[in-house]
Amino acid sequence: MIAYADTSFVVPLYRVETNSAAAAKAMSRLNAPVMLSPLGELEVHNAFQLSVFRGEIDATAAARKIQLFAEDLANGVFQIHPVPAGTLYPLAIKLAARHSATLGTRSLDLLHVAAAMILKADLFLSFDERQKKAAKAEGVKVSS
């Protein structure tokens, strides 16, 4: 099985929040590495820096969370898979036309769904309900 995760799924693995237990449980059921796009990698790093800005954690804690994420990348828990922009953006535009007016999906949501589709993911891991609805409408199995 090929699994793709968006940031709403990955970040709770490193920061205690409402979805942390569900994310950990879902990860324990997976046998293969979970794919992320470079966008996902950027968003994970940015999420921890934003936590510092918001006063939720300090810079040392953010650096530690980023280090743990880097270790998981090095150990094959996650894999970053490049997605060609020339394919990604046109597909995301098509997804916007099909879903944004009815689901309220945002651009970054659609970029993740498009990346999962391009990478031929069998499973889309997310806690974002609109994003999951778009992925499901495109025939990608969703889980959280």
Any overview of this molecule?
By secondary structure, this protein is α/β, with parallel strands linked by helices. It has one domain (3-143): Rossmann fold (3-Layer(aba) Sandwich). 60% of the residues lie in helices and 10% in strands. It is built from 7 helices and 5 strands. The protein has helices at 7-10, 20-29, 38-53, 59-74, 85-103, 107-118, 129-137; strands spanning 3-5, 34-36, 78-80, 123-125, 141-143. The chain has a 5-stranded parallel beta sheet. Helix 3 runs antiparallel to helix 4 and helix 5 (85-103) crosses helix 6 (107-118). The longest helix has 19 residues, at 85-103. The protein is globular, with a radius of gyration of 15 Å.
Report the C-alpha radius of gyration, rounded: 15 Å
Query: How many angstroms separate the termini?
Result: 15 Å
Please report the first level of CATH classification, the CATH class.
Alpha Beta
Morphology call: globular
Order of helices and strands: EHHEHHEHHEHE
CATH fold annotation: Rossmann fold
Q: Which stretches of 5+ consecutive residues score pLDDT under 50?
A: none
How many H/I helical runs? 7
Multimeric status of the protein: single chain
Number of domains: 1
**How much helical structure, as a percent, in the residues?**
55-70%
CATH architecture: 3-Layer(aba) Sandwich
Strand fraction? 5-15%
CATH H level, superfamily name: 5'-nuclease
Spatial strand arrangement across the major sheet:
3-2-1-4-5
Major sheet description: 5 strands, parallel
The overall strand count is 5
Mean pLDDT: 96
Structural class computed from helices and strand pairing: alpha/beta
